[in-house]
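Protocol step 4 of 6: record predicted structures for both targets in the notebook before any analysis. Target 1:
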Amino acid sequence: MIDPEIFDRPTHAELATRRSTKWTLFGPDVVPAFVAELDVDLAEPIARALHDAIARGDTGYANPVDLPGAYARFARERFAWEIDPRAISVVPDVMVGVVEALRVLVQPGDAVAINTPVYAPFYTSLEEARVRRVDVPLVRRDDGTYDLDLEGLEAAFAGGVRAYLLCNPHNPVGRAFARATLDAVADLAARYDVVVLSDEIHAPLAYASNPHTAFATCAQRYGARALALVSASKAWNLAGLKCALIVAGDAGVARTLATMPKEVRFRTGHLGAIAATAAFSEGGAWLDALRKHLDRNRHYLTELLSEHIPNISYAIPEATYLAWLDCRELGLGDRPATAFLRDGRVALSAGTDFGAAGAGFVRLNFGTTRAMLREIVARMACAVQAAGIAS
């Protein structure tokens, strides 16, 4: 048992010594809450595995023979998802996996559907894969939550879409889509012969009230072609080590993925593969404690906003450590992140980075300490006051 209080230990001064994007992109007077990096100490099993590798000079090319089996066991225990380790391919990161998979699964110029607003690299990755993007916007309910537009998806599939890039759980809106919804998607994909690429990088970070459903488990029942893209990078804060996995949902997709260039595998980081194997094999207790900490933070953010900036609308996410905040009532324009940075010295992700539907929104990373979260909201409140807007 690991005490979730350990995740409140890092101080601002300690975190500011880090050299990652989160802590170096802006000046030292800016509190960063934008990019999806966690403000946590490394899980002990991962730190030990990396230290041991460095001590023995084990820094060559990656050959992650143990990683597929480690992930298959993790998926069985966490998601009731049975995977043959031979169906797993190693890639440097999830978006590289998206691009390389699309290159062998569809033709240049083919239509690929996405649900907007969505993770910004989806847009550039589809451009890199030389496919045509078809937007099927999420449906936003009165309570601020979102869901898939199944009618819109069917229309897109019937109109010639050849692949569907699903974000499950969804970044930035934080939905862990219900099994019934994903079953409906799988049914549509099978009927229209659309291959589904499910980005499940945030799957380990779905909260107990809304458990993650692996899309492949739905696809198998309906005979849909599918694959999942997974990684330890978000849940264990390993993005810079460069390692992810593609899990083929059926034998046909596995055969197609086998035609990807062999160089893709060798671009994977060796230390990333070592860290990911340790995470999936030995990092479960640490992950459980982290989820308790993040669960507390997502609710604490509600309290802080209610007290300091009640005009911001916030639907508590079902997964991820990312909050999608509706700031339109503040009158800060289409990119309120600009005002928060200028007048509050706090860096948030601009909603428009996730698509036109994000105008007036920001994305806030609450994967930090409670003290830092208080500081983030306090700085946002100062920016609102500087703009002369009653909160």
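Target 2:
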Amino acid sequence: MFEQKTSMGSQWEKQTLQKVLLEHISEQRRARRWNIFFKLIVIGLLGLLLYGYFNPDASTSVITTQAHTALIDVEGEIGAAEEASADNIRDSIKSAFANKLVKGVVLRINSPGGSPVQARQIYDEIRSQRQKNPQVKVYAAIEDLGTSAAYLIASAADEIYADQTSLVGSIGAKIDSFGFVEIMQKVGVERRLYTAGQDKGILDPFSPRSPEEDAFINQQLQLVHAAFIKNVRDGRGNRLHETPNIFSGLFWTGEQALNLGLLDGFGDAQFIARELIKAPNLVDYTPNVNVIDRIAHRIGASMGQVLGANAGLIFQGIR
């Protein structure tokens, strides 16, 4: 009986040890699989980075074999780190005009505005391509919003269309800031700001304003505003019905904007392609910004904002 129990105990130990060993082997296999999986992800991401580096135009290339209308979306805020950046939109415009099968270009705009510099770069590219290729017309199709810097871009087109209820205009410039001087005085906080250059601390929210600083900032805004007005006048020409408040920064519905000469009619991208360009086949030339590029842009923009804020270089223009 004792020998039988010993034999049974030994067999149980062997089975338990075997199970432990098998489980250990299975665990190692799972770990290897996960290791391979993560390595493949890293290799894939590196491959995408290298492909994007050696093929910078891959995101904007379009393959088609028939006459068509090129569609380019200007969506969201206009800025260097945004999808609606000058680099992205200009590349799309160049790609569209380089294709001999493109019969017309539609900029589908849905944006509240953004950077005046980025908008003016896009504006200049549109005007340049129009001059080089007068046979290919450019249309702007405003959806919900086409205001501020977005309207600046639209004004470079041959014609602008929108919906009766779209919001259009807001031709103005502004700088946003806050003042915390009185709060700091109440809580007993002392501001210590050291600068090289007597006006380096201008726009500092923790320092008191002066009449000289206000006058200087207003002067800069007037210069930006004047450049905006000139671009709109150059783009719209005698179609504008100028009123005392057309350049005041106000925005209007599509119905009102048409009466002011800010629009040429009502319609969307499909209407323009079908009825005006006579090439109803819409092909999207909007840059396909991948996740890696977007993250890289965000990191670069964040670093730039930190450096700019420290140097006092944050400037919000046409908004």
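Step 5 preliminary note on target 2. DSSP finds nine helices and eight strands in the chain. The CA atoms of residues 35 and 61 lie 35 Å apart.
Proceed to step 6 after PI sign-off.
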